[in-house]
Design goal:
The complex is a heterodimer of chains A (368) and B (345). Chain A has three domains: 5-59 and 171-245, Rossmann fold; 65-170 and 255-299, Rossmann fold, CATH 3.40.50.11740; 315-359, no CATH class. Chain A is α/β, with parallel strands linked by helices. The two termini of chain A are 38 Å apart. Chain A has helices spanning 10-23, 35-43, 63-66, 69-79, 102-107, 118-127, 144-156, 171-180, 193-199, 204-211, 222-238, 257-266, 296-299, 315-319, 351-358, 361-367, and strands at 28-34, 54-61, 84-88, 112-114, 132-139, 162-169, 188-192, 215-218, 243-245, 267-274, 278-287. The longest helix of chain A is centred in the middle third of the chain and has 17 residues, at 222-238. Chain B is an alpha+beta fold and 345 residues long. Chain B has two domains: 17-158, 60s Ribosomal Protein L30, Chain: A (2-Layer Sandwich); 166-333, Phosphoribosyl-aminoimidazole Synthetase, Chain A, domain 2 (Alpha-Beta Complex). Helices cover 28% and strands 23% of the residues of chain B. A seven-stranded mixed beta sheet of chain B has the order 8-10-7-11-9-12-13. A four-stranded mixed beta sheet of chain B has the order 1-6-4-5. In chain B, helix 2 runs parallel beside helix 5. The chains are: A alpha/beta (368), B alpha+beta (345). The interface between A and B is large, with 50 and 30 residues.
């Protein structure tokens, strides 16, 4: 496959690995922001191939994982109301709310549908004028443009039975929150390539500067990740802290202008609670005043009590990079994909799921 | 495929509750449909059950088919219901002989669709060389079913040279896969409501019994174990067997045959082909020394053109499946937990 197979070749992997071994002289902790990167690292067995001095810690970039219980409860509540169809991306369905998951309410008869695109939800609204269609709009800056576009489209077509339940989160405020935590030991970031494809690079310069931390915008294939790690380690070894772009085949400095304009048309930056981490100021998007009729929270006057996170789940420590999934006493014991305590075990980008499914035999033996 | 005789038409447009009542309408449905299309001397006896002779050890298997949508690229629920049970018998080392066929129809099913399904059933049975000898038809209220559910059960004669049992598997044995994986699952997903995407991927559903018979004729008990990795995909089957035999499996990612389009669709949807359902594909655990010869034989068969060795049985990590990644890393391949759900981004 073009643009994929080239980045999976064993020869290039070997070349970058050799260079990483060559430049590494000290111990470094690198955080990959995105859950997609975590999965690729674990799935391809890269963690075992790196020099012992390099520790990869897994960041908060899994939109499913950081969606708080309260918002999942809102989605579940909506799905239980007569006349409402809740649409969602597939991997949200298994994530536990305070009492059950969307998959659970679906089994009880709620009309919950899996879609790939919010634009399909707008189409569903058009086809079902007697129903209210709510799209569970979860995601980082990557999914926000399509969700914003769905509202613009609904608005332009005069569709009134469509709204979104926004749970949008933003990467840079989370990076700042992590870096300003005294417990953090992050030496460098591999920033999320897809997020930067939309947003560009500008937001990362002040962070690299303020916290003297290298930021390398990185892709998702083995060669991407190893090249990103190499660039970050080279900076660290030289004492530099620049923003570099490994993923230049997609990421441009200014990002995707059209996508950003669409987002700005529909969303306003808001405070957002992150599962396991807590409230991070100005770290999310909410539907703005102008388009509030498409905000499910306004439309259905949602005012549910704030639900507590499961205390047995250490997802906050996992997503802050303070602990590895294996260090959780419940990992693969009382917390498994079929009965998760928290989202990181079920999301396709969750760190715990990555370790559960793909960790090397050596690592798995260590758990037992 | 050319049919032997013209297919009769029903004189009603949709199937109603009355067609399952056991009365006149049921009689009409069976007479002008099921019996006429599927006729053979055993079914024509029209008794409560079929009577026949079988000489030798037999295998017996049953499966229900609830696939949505009932018609999909490359096939429909009818041929799937025949191929599925035929293949389950073949995996036991048996030549399928007789099948039962039971329908649970949701009221409102168009008779045209029902007829198409019956014709597919007839053709699939002919290809596999099996006879449908007994059956049942029930109709449930609208909303109580999903168009049509089918159950088939089948009985087959065990091949005289076959000794298919997981207890025969030994360290050093090779794992063969007969063809491209994940094709069926992705073909179905491409037409599933709400998730449609454009593709030319067609289900590879087919009967594997003749391929297996040929393999058994040549290699007999050097074939230790057979399984068609349908639901749960290749990964789930490997885990199941590894656990049963307390040995490990090592598979090589580079050797896994996946059609390029299917691989592309998996990338897009965030699915791992190892967990996607298969139809016209089987896995065999075979004696090391004979593995290459078996692959050569399979590659001459239309159901085995992409056959290849994907891994081997080891004494390390008993009960676990390890995959060597394309780039030389190693990772555990686990069971599929629940349904594979498409990802966010």
């Amino acid at each position: 496959m073009k643009f994929l197979s080239e980045y999976r070749g064993p020869e290039l992997v070997k070349k970058y690995l050799e260079q990483i071994f060559h430049v590494t002289t000290k111990r470094w902790k690198l955080m990959e922001i995105c859950g997609g990167q975590t999965h690729s690292l674990v799935k391809n067995g890269i963690l075992d191939m790196l020099p012992g001095q390099i520790t990869m810690v897994h960041g908060p970039g899994c939109p499913v994982c950081v969606t708080p219980v309260s918002i999942i409860d809102e989605a579940i509540y909506l799905s239980q109301q007569p006349g409402i169809i809740v649409c969602s991306f597939g991997d949200m369905l298994r994530v536990p709310g305070s009492r059950k998951s969307l998959l659970g309410t679906k089994a009880e008869g709620a009309d919950v549908r899996i879609l790939y695109s919010p634009l399909d939800a707008v189409r569903l609204a058009k086809e079902n004028p007697g129903k209210e269609i709510v799209f569970f709009a979860v995601g980082f800056e990557t999914t926000a443009p399509a969700n914003a576009l769905s509202i613009v489209q609904a608005h332009q077509s005069g569709i009134n039975n469509y709204s979104i339940l926004a749970s949008h989160v933003l990467v840079p405020p989370a990076m700042e929150a992590l870096l300003s935590d005294d417990a953090n030991e992050i030496d460098a970031f591999l920033a999320a390539g897809h997020v930067c494809t939309i947003m560009g690079m500008e937001e990362y310069y002040p962070i690299a500067e303020k916290y003297k931390t290298p930021v390398v915008i990185t892709g998702f294939e083995p060669v991407d990740l190893l090249q990103g790690i190499l660039l970050a380690v080279q900076q660290l070894e030289k004492g530099e802290y620049k923003v570099e772009n490994q993923y230049a085949r997609y990421v441009q400095r200014e990002g995707n202008r059209l996508a950003k304009e669409t987002m700005m048309e529909v969303f306003a930056v808001s405070d957002r609670v992150w599962r396991g981490i807590g409230n991070i100021p100005q770290s999310g998007y909410e539907v703005n005043e102008q388009y509030k009729q498409y905000n499910a929270r306004v439309k259905f006057k949602l005012n549910l009590p704030v639900a507590e996170e499961n205390k047995d789940c250490i997802s906050g420590d996992i997503m802050k990079g303070l602990k590895k999934p294996f260090q959780c006493p419940n990992f693969s014991m009382s917390c498994k994909p079929e009965h998760p305590l928290g989202a990181p075990m079920v999301s396709s980008e969750g760190a715990c799921a990555a370790y559960y499914h793909y960790a090397s035999a050596k690592e798995q033996e260590e758990i037992i | 495929m050319q049919l032997e005789c013209p297919i009769p038409k029903f004189d009603f447009d949709v199937i109603t509750l009355g067609h399952g009542s056991g009365g006149l309408l049921t009689h009409q449905l069976l007479k002008s449909g099921v019996f006429d299309i599927l006729k053979n001397e055993l079914l024509d006896q029209q008794h409560d059950g079929a009577s026949f002779m079988l000489n030798g050890p037999v295998a017996f298997s049953s499966d229900s088919y609830v696939i949505t949508p009932a018609f999909f690229p490359g096939g429909n629920i009818g041929e799937l219901a025949i191929n599925g049970t035929v293949n389950d018998l073949a995996m036991c080392g048996a030549s399928p002989k007789y099948l039962s066929l039971a329908f649970i129809i949701e009221e409102g099913l168009a008779t045209d669709e029902f007829r198409q399904i019956l014709v597919s059933i007839k053709e699939a049975a002919q290809r596999a060389g099996v006879k449908i000898v007994t059956g049942d038809t029930k109709v449930v209220e609208k909303g109580k079913g999903d168009k049509l559910f089918i159950n088939t059960s089948g009985i087959g004669l065990i091949h005289p040279k076959a000794d298919i049992h997981h207890k025969n598997i030994e360290p050093g044995d090779k794992i063969i896969i007969s063809g491209n994986i994940a094709t069926h699952g992705i073909a179905i997903m491409s037409v599933r409501k709400g998730l449609e995407f454009e593709s030319a991927i067609e289900s590879d559903t087919t009967n594997l019994n003749r391929t297996i018979e040929n393999l058994l004729d040549h290699f007999g008990n050097d074939i230790k174990f057979l399984r068609d990795p349908t639901r749960g995909g290749v990964a789930s089957v490997l885990n199941e067997i590894a656990e049963l035999i307390s040995l490990g499996f090592v598979i090589d990612q580079r050797s896994l045959p996946v059609d390029e389009q299917v691989e592309g669709a998996c990338e897009m949807l965030g699915l791992d082909p190892l967990y996607v359902a298969n139809e016209g594909v089987f896995m065999a655990v075979v004696k090391n020394e004979m593995a290459e010869d078996m692959v050569s034989l399979l590659q001459k068969d239309e159901n085995g053109r992409n056959a290849t060795i994907i891994g081997e049985v080891v004494t390390d990590h008993p009960g676990k499946v390890i995959m060597k990644s394309r780039i030389g890393g190693r990772r555990v391949v686990n069971y599929l937990a629940g349904e594979q759900l498409p990802r966010i981004c």
